[in-house]
Amino acid sequence: MVRFEEDKLIIEINSPDPIDEWMQLQTEIYNLLRHQHEESTLQFNWIFLFLNELQPAYECAMRMNEE
Fold first, then answer.
1. Beta-ladder partners of 10
2. pLDDT in tens, 34-64
3. What is the domain extent for residue 57?
4. Within a domain: residue 31?
5. Residue 30, CA atoms < 13 Å, CB-side half-sphere
6. What are the pLDDT digits (tens) for 10-32?
7. How far apart are CA 12 and CA 33, in angstroms?
8. From CA 54, how far away is CA 39, in angstroms rounded?
9. End-to-end CA, the chain
10. 10, part of any domain
11. pLDDT at 59
């Protein structure tokens, strides 16, 4: 589910293992786009930058899970 607030958007997905599933999902999306980028003339740089911003460092993700 996506929720919008004044200065942010929040995506909520129920998961038994949210950190590992999120990291895996981001990796798979990145690999898919990278492969597509290599096969076409389209520019995906902005998508890569966006995905990079969504990907916390593993240590940071673990700290968020403790809160």
1. 3
2. 787 777 766 667 777 777 777 777 787 778 7
3. 15-66
4. yes
5. 14
6. 888 888 988 888 888 888 888 88
7. 23
8. 24
9. 21
10. no
11. 81
In a domain, 2, yes or no: no
pLDDT over 90 percentage in the chain: 1
Name the H helices within 1-67: 18-39, 45-54, 58-66
Task: Tell whether 48 is covered by a domain.
Answer: yes
Evaluate the CA torsion angle 67, 23, 48, 12 in order and state its sign. Answer: negative
| Reported pTM | 0.54
Cα-based torsion angle of the residue sequence 37, 58, 8, 33 in order, rounded to the nearest 10 degrees: 10
Helix (H, G, I), strand (E, B) or coil at 17: coil
